[in-house]
């Protein structure tokens, strides 16, 4: 777990200096555990339980319903859970202090903030493949490239292709996910 989260506190504070209850799951935990869906990320956070799985799932924190409406510290309606291949970290702020992010998008139980991956100045290419029971087959790619020598133009692509069966005769899951990002700055 991280010792600080600037997106959860909206300040450059360490978690020990912050009076809020903050739990963070970073990309290293997601990769090491081989997590393939968003609810499995939240299993690493004590006190969060999946309440109802619909198109846009509900979670419970401190007895209140919490939804997945915050992305990168901003209100962002999520019609479904995001693929973990594009998640840098997940911050959960527990309690009513989560209303700092907007009272219509969080509850008194807190809020769930999905921090997405952003381009950075070094070249890095990561490719992965997972397989498992019930015909799980998952390919992931994370490509980060500076596009010029000055490193003012940065590009990042996150992609995944997932096929997953089920213990039921008629159950299966197929999903393609692509997310590209271009960052241009002047120095």
Whole-angstrom Rg: 18 Å
Low-confidence stretches: none
- Tally of extended strands? 12
Calculate the mean pLDDT score and round it. Answer: 83
- For the termini, the CA-CA separation is 33 Å
In total, the number of domains comes to: 2
Helix residue percentage: under 10%
- Report the principal-axis shape: globular
CATH topology call of the largest domain: Ferric Hydroxamate Uptake Protein, Chain A, domain 1
- Look at the structure and give the CATH class of the largest domain: Mainly Beta
Mind describing the biggest β-sheet?
5 strands, mixed
Output the strand order for the largest sheet. Answer: 1-7-8-5-6
Q: What's the name of the CATH homologous superfamily of the largest domain?
A: TonB-dependent receptor, plug domain
Q: What's the total helix number?
A: 3
- What CATH architecture of the largest domain would you give? Beta Complex
What is the beta-strand fraction?
Answer: 35-45%
List SSEs in N-to-C order.
Answer: HEHHEEEEEEEEEEE
Output the structural class. Answer: mainly beta
List keywords for this structure.
about 190 residues; mainly beta; Ferric Hydroxamate Uptake Protein, Chain A, domain 1; 2 domains; five-stranded mixed beta sheet; 3 helices; 12 strands; about 10% helix
């Amino acid at each position: 777990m991280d010792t600080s989260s600037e997106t959860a506190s909206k300040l450059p504070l360490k978690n020990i200096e912050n009076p809020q209850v903050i739990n963070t799951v970073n990309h290293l935990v997601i990769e090491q555990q081989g997590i393939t869906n968003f609810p499995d990320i939240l299993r690493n956070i004590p006190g969060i339980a999946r309440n109802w799985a619909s198109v846009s799932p509900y979670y419970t924190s401190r007895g209140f319903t919490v939804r997945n409406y915050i992305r990168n510290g901003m209100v962002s309606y999520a019609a479904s859970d995001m693929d973990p291949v594009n998640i840098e970290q997940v911050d959960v702020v527990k309690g009513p202090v989560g209303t700092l992010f907007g009272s219509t998008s969080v509850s008194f139980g807190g809020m769930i903030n999905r921090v997405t991956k952003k381009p950075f100045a070094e070249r890095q290419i990561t490719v992965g493949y997972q397989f498992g029971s019930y015909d799980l087959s998952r390919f992931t790619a994370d490509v980060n490239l500076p596009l010029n020598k000055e490193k003012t133009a940065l590009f990042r692509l996150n992609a995944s292709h997932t096929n997953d069966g089920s213990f039921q005769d008629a159950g299966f899951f197929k999903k393609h996910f692509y997310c590209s990002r271009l960052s241009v700055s002047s120095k």
